[in-house]
Amino acid sequence: MFFRRRPPDLSGYSDDELVRLFEQSRDEEHFAELFRRHSRSVFLSANAFLREVGAAEDVTQEAFLQAYRSLETFAGGDFRAWLLRIARNRCIDRWRRRTPETSYDAAPIQADIASGRQTVGTALHFAMLELDSELPCLPHSQRECLRLKGEGYSYEETAVELGCSPDDVRSHLQNGRRTLRIRMASALAEVL
Description:
By secondary structure, this protein is mainly alpha-helical.
């Protein structure tokens, strides 16, 4: 009869300690703990970018595989941020490889539809550029709440991540959204 070894409790170790222990011992339990900690945020980030669950799962797996293979290039610091950067780059690679699924017969019809929406598309593009420039102007707590909510975190998960209460998260989100709505009123009016 075979018994499976119970994994050690690694929850007390920091990410940096786990990376160092993995580099020294190559014990996969250390890397598995990093996966347990960060796989959800990598998946949510990839899914927010790609808007496709299957592709986001693939990107999550690819990001962790790349991190596993190239952990020696990790220079220390924020492991989660490094991992999310790998995932973002994988998402961008997938987005670039996508080929249009348009047949030649449908192209003239879609061109007519697209030309009618060109003004809206341009306005939306400029609204997104303005949003990118306005986000850094928000207070840190509002900006981080908006970022985590955009990645799919719940109020409770965001509160734990930021070390505040769920009510504080709701307040930061409401205030951040209101500030963005006021500061971007003219750009939003052109889109809506």
